[in-house]
Amino acid sequence: MFITLSYILKPFEATGHDWPWMAHYMKCSSSIIGQKWLLTAAHCKHIPVAAIVYGNDDRTFGKVAEIKTKYPHPKHQNGIPGYDIMLVEVSVKNKLIIIYKCSF
After folding, report:
1. For residues 36 and 30, is the Cβ–Cβ distance under 8 A?
2. What pTM does this model have?
3. Which of 17, 10, 7, 14 is nearest to 63 (CA)?
4. What's the fold here for domain 16-91?
5. Cβ contact 54:62 at 8 Å
6. Domain definitions of the chain by residue range
7. Which conformational region is residue 17 in: left (phi greater than 0), alpha (psi within -120 to 50 degrees), or beta?
């Protein structure tokens, strides 16, 4: 399956649960990459947030996981391109559950 550039540039509105691996880290989006791990941008490390929201398309509703530890890339420097990546460990009672829907 190939995705054409015209498809990528064509805007569309996502319907409910189109992106189940996404979590909301205040103004930064993040991806759920493990049972208690998120991947986001290192420039978000100074955002004063104590938890992330996941499991819903709305940033104000969903399941909440408390942030345990942030691990920005050690070479990241604000304002300088590169190394803008950060792992975020969350503390959850249950594991972050992701259900993938394959359509190919």
Report:
1. no
2. 0.71
3. 17
4. Thrombin, subunit H (2.40.10)
5. yes
6. 16-91
7. left
Measure the CA–CA gap between 40 and 62, rounded to whole angstroms.
19
Give the bridge partners for 38, in sequence order. 32, 88
**What letter would DSSP give residue 55?**
S
* pLDDT per residue as tens digits for the range 44-101: 898 888 888 877 766 666 788 889 999 999 999 988 889 999 999 998 766 665 544 4
For the chain, the farthest-separated pair of C-alpha atoms sits apart, in whole angstroms, at 42
Residue 48: which residues within 8 A CB-CB, separation 6 or more?
none
DSSP 6: H
The pair of three-digit structure tokens given for residue 83, joined into one six-digit string = 């190394």
Instruction: Say how many C-beta atoms besides its own lie within 10 A of residue 40's C-beta.
Output: 23
